[in-house]
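ok so i was messing around last nite and threw this chain in just to see what happens. nothing serious, just curious
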Amino acid sequence: MASSSASGSTATNSSTTGRTRGAGTGTTFTRWLGIVTIALMAAVVLFGLVLSPADVVQGESVRILYVHVGTVWVAYLAFIVTAVSSGAYLWRRTHSLTWDRIAGASAEIGVLFMAVTLLTGSLWGRLSWGTFWVWDARVTTTAFLFITYVGYLAVRGLGGSHEQRARRSAVVALLAVIEIPLVHFSVKLWRSVHQDASVAGRTTDVTLDGLMLFTLVLATVAFTLLYVWYVLHRQRVMAMEDALDDKGLDLALAERRREAQDATSTTGEVTN
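result:
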C-alpha cells in the first residue's frame, strides 16, 4: 500500500511538473520568430557598427540613425495597430476583449520604442546640433505623442471592469492616433531644423551607400519582427491577468455568498 501510494504521489508530481513546464505564452511559431529576430538583431549590430561605412557629412554618428529610424517606424506601427484594434473592439461584429488586449500590448511596446526614438534622437542631436534638445516642430510633436500614449496606458490602469477599461481606452486610442500625421508632416508644416525623409522623401537628393541602405532596411525589419514577438507574448500575458482577475472576483463572490448563508443560518438558530 505504501509503495502504491508513493508511486501515485510520484505520478501526480510528475504530471504537475509537466503542466508547469508546458505553461507559458510561447508557441512553436513565437519560438522560431524569436530565433529569427535574435539573428537579425545580431546582424544589425554587425552591419551597423562594423561593416557599414561612416557617412561623408555625419561621420560615425550616422550609426545612431539605424536604431532611430527603425524604432520610430515601429512606434508609428504600434500606435496604428492600437487604434485599429480599438476600433475592432468597438465594432459590434468584432467585439472581443482580445482586440483590447492587442491594443494595450501594442501601445505598451509603442511607448517603449518611442522612448528609444527620443533617446537616440537626443544623442544624434548632441553630435549634429551641439545640444541634446531643441524646441523643434518634429522633436516637440514626437515628445507630445509619447506623453499622449503614456496617458493612454494610465487610462488603461484605472479601476473598473474589463469592458469599462476597453471602452474608455478605445476612445482615447482613436483620438491619439490623429497625432501621427501631425508628427510625420511637422517638418513640412513648420520651419524645422530636423531633416526630412532621406530615403523615401520625394524631393530628397540624398544618395545612400548600398551597404548603409541595406543596414537601414535590415534594422527596420528586425525591429518590426521584435515588435510582433513582443505583442504576441504580451497580449497572452494580459489574457492570463484578466482570467486571474475574473477568478479572483468569482472567489470573492462565492465567499460573500457563504457569509450571507452563515449569517442567515445563525439568525434562524437564534430565532428558534
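not much to say yet. Residues 68 and 117 are 5 Å apart (CA to CA).
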